[in-house]
Amino acid sequence: GVKTYTIVVKVLDTPGPPVNLAVKETSKDYAVISWDPPLIDGGSPVKNYIVEKRDAERKAWATVSIDCPKTTFRIQNLEEGKFYFFRVLAENEHGIGEPCETH
After folding, report:
1. pTM of the model
2. Cα 103 from chain centroid?
3. Whole-angstrom Cα distance, residue 58 to residue 5?
4. Which of 17, 27, 28, 41 has the fewest CB atoms within 10 Å around its CB?
C-alpha cells in the first residue's frame, strides 16, 4: 500500500524590508518619513520599526528610534544645510529584518 501525507511548512524568519520609504515633509531641522509594512512578515507580525539616519558625508548609521510602532516618523535635530539618508528596518519576534533606504 501507499500512504500519502500532507505537510504544511511555516517558515519563521525575520521580516523583509519595509517598502515605499519616502520623505514626506522637511524643515530646516527635521524630516518626516513614511513607509509601508514589509511584503513578507516572516510568519510573525511586525512589532515595531527601527529608524536610522546617516549624514551623507559619513559611512556610519545613527539610530534615531528602536521602537517606532507606526509607519511614519519625525526625525528631529537635523542640521540645516546637510544632506541625510534615512533607513527603516522592521522587527518581529524572530529579529530585525533587512533595511529599506532613501537615496
Report:
1. 0.88
2. 14
3. 55
4. 28
